[in-house]
């Protein structure tokens, strides 16, 4: 049911915002320097302008992450997004987190959802 998928998306996004806020607050009060950051390119499965805008907005609204740019793609390669992660220097971990965020969004937005493995 689309309403339940949308509620699940809002719950997931809210939890990511709370977790990111906690990491930023802890880092602000910690006397030691913050962990190393990283910039990654993430090839998106989102295809429409609305999906891409929602995905980029969800990344940027989550504390500790920021969209630096979006590449529209072409006939060979799809669109991709460049993301700065403040607290994670492991590129694979960042890409996995972005894939999970994107899956939750696309599962909520698309009419028939999205299989987990896609």
Can you offer a commentary on this structure?
- The chain is of the alpha+beta class and 118 residues long.
- It is 51% helix and 16% strand.
- It has three helices and three strands.
- The chain has helices spanning 2-29, 49-61, 91-109; strands at residues 38-43, 65-71, 80-85.
- A three-stranded antiparallel sheet has the order 1-3-2, covered by helices on one side.
- It is globular.
- It starts with a helix and ends in a 9-residue tail after the last helix.
- The model has no long low-confidence stretch (mean pLDDT 87).
Task: Sum this structure up briefly.
It comes from Arachnia rubra. The chain is 51% helix and 16% strand. It is built from three helices and three strands.
Topology:
Elements: H1 2-29, E1 38-43, H2 49-61, E2 65-71, E3 80-85, H3 91-109
Antiparallel strand pairs: 1-3, 2-3
Number of strands: 3
Could you name the ranges where pLDDT drops below 50 across 5 or more consecutive residues? Answer: none
Q: Distance between the terminal alpha carbons, to the nearest Å?
A: 19 Å
**Rg of Cα set:** 15 Å
Major pleated sheet: 3 strands, antiparallel
The overall pLDDT, averaged over residues, is: 87
Count of helical regions: 3
Summing up helix and strand content along with how strands pair, one would put the structural category as alpha+beta
User: In what range is the share of β-strand residues?
Assistant: 15-25%
Strand order across the biggest sheet?
A: 1-3-2
Q: Spell the H/E element sequence.
A: HEHEEH
General form = globular
Helix content percent band: 40-55%
Main location: membrane
Family: Belongs to the CPA3 antiporters (TC 2.A.63) subunit E family.
Protein name: Na+/H+ antiporter subunit E
Keywords: Cell membrane, Membrane, Transmembrane, Transmembrane helix
